[in-house]
Amino acid sequence: MPLIDYSFLAKILPKAKINKGYKKAKKSYLNRVRLATSLFFFGMGFCFSTWASRIPDIKSILQLSEAELGTMLFTLPIGQLVAMPFTGKIVTKYGSRNISILGLLLYAFCLIFIGLATQSWHLATGLFLFGFFCNFCNIAVNAQGVYTQQLFDKPIIGSFHGSWSLAGFFGALVGLLMLAFGWTPFQHFTAAFGFVVIILLTNYKYIIKVKSKQEEEKSSYSFWKNPDKTLLWLGVICFCGMASEGIMFDWSGVYFKEIIKAPGALVVLGYTTFMISMASGRFLSDILVAKYGAKKVLIISGLIISAGLYMAVLLPYIIPCTIAFMLVGFGVSNVVPIIFNVAGNNKNVPTGIALTIVTSISFLGFLIGPPLIGFIAELTSLKHSFAIIGVFGVFISVLVTWLKIFK
């Protein structure tokens, strides 16, 4: 008997109103389904960027030191890690549609809780829950991306991840606007919650309802009892990609400041160009996969990641390094969409569980990558640490070439 009874989900969540098969639906309806899925990805990215845009203000309001803020920020990935062991089974049992709707709603609602924080433990609790529901939302919405992709003859899954990246820019711009108007984090986060609710209300009925006996039969699958080696290696590939992505998020500004010696506002140039390149690359990913195939795109992407990182090390000047970070952004942009799609279509493991396995392994890249950079930089230098991480791109290309799943 489970510790928590989740049967109430079936009663409180809206039911699908679609009677005919998706495959037989009109193209206009399928495009509406695609738009709804894109907006769910957008809503996910908007929640995260909304929180990130107000971190400095929350630090000031709660009078946190750098060390205290670092500790608070670590509670978010802890929440994600706590949710990972059972997210896949819940998504498989109750359906990615239901968990996508409920997960995004609770994910956005946690912003309000964070905005109300007046003490450190309030913030820590809010961020833990934020990470917890982020994991449910992430697995369920990505499963929806895989299912929606199956309705189309051409690759489209890259555009979903592109929507997430696009939401990062939108959330940051809204954050700047809220600061200009003098809105508190609570007011800002409440408005953001309302925006996400609008996304949910206008799109939930177009989210795919997937229920099959095959999925139910496979829901008892245990990775520890019967590990799927293909998913393990897919997770390692994604680990390398997300580790490279993570160090760009956390260390690109530091690299431009300490190594490039970029003046003033140009410190953020590397991060900005990386984000623009990554977002653009994800929208182009579908076109590239359709023309050249997933295997070639991944191999080239891995080599581009390594080329970008080594270019930044060998040519530590503003213009070359800006181009280098753009290359890294374009390289990492293709890894997650392609790997998640391949993992989600695994014939032996249900989509929710397969995505949880790959995400759990790859998420370690975000956790380990940035601290590893700091550790290596402390022993040697920041340039040397970037050079060592540059090997990850080569690993991606080698593993993709070796795995038989890529044709």
Based on the model shown, name its key terms.
disordered N terminus, 407 residues, 16 helices, mainly alpha
N-to-C span: 43 Å
With helices defined by DSSP (H or I, 4 residues minimum), what is the helix count? 16
User: Could you tell me the mean pLDDT?
Assistant: 82
Shape: globular
Strand percentage = under 5%
Would you give an account of this structure?
The chain is mainly alpha-helical and 407 residues long. Helices cover 78% and strands 0% of the residues. It contains 16 helices and no strands. Helix 5 packs antiparallel against helix 8. The longest helix is centred in the N-terminal third of the chain and has 30 residues. The chain is globular. The N terminus is likely disordered.
